[in-house]
Amino acid sequence: MSRMRPKDVVRAWVDAFNRADVDALTNFYREDAINHQVAEKLVQGRDAIREMFAAGFAAAEMVCIPEHIFEDGEWAMLEWRDPKGFRGCGFFQVIDGKIVFQRGYWDKLSFLKLYGLALPDANT
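^ thats the sequence. predicted structure below, dont judge the formating
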């Protein structure tokens, strides 16, 4: 049985993300995976990634509309937007069909304002 190509993993990841399916999303990651959304602290390990997604979906109704998915070797790159016009991109390193590293770029202040979430305290 052949492994999914990185861009196919990302397509399936987007599908699970849009269902807010935390378990399905978590299963795409290797046990020791790293997810670093640059606007947030680095998250390491499948359990911590699960908690990150659970908290994110509890805070906002997030939707990922892929605009482009590119693949280069073991990497897939996703350019996305959401229905409100919020945009970002993500880079996924996929080895043996599992995400081992993910980095996402998006503007946290714009996200918080768009979704009516509390702004971070400047003193923290």
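Residues 33 and 100 are 4 Å apart (CA to CA).
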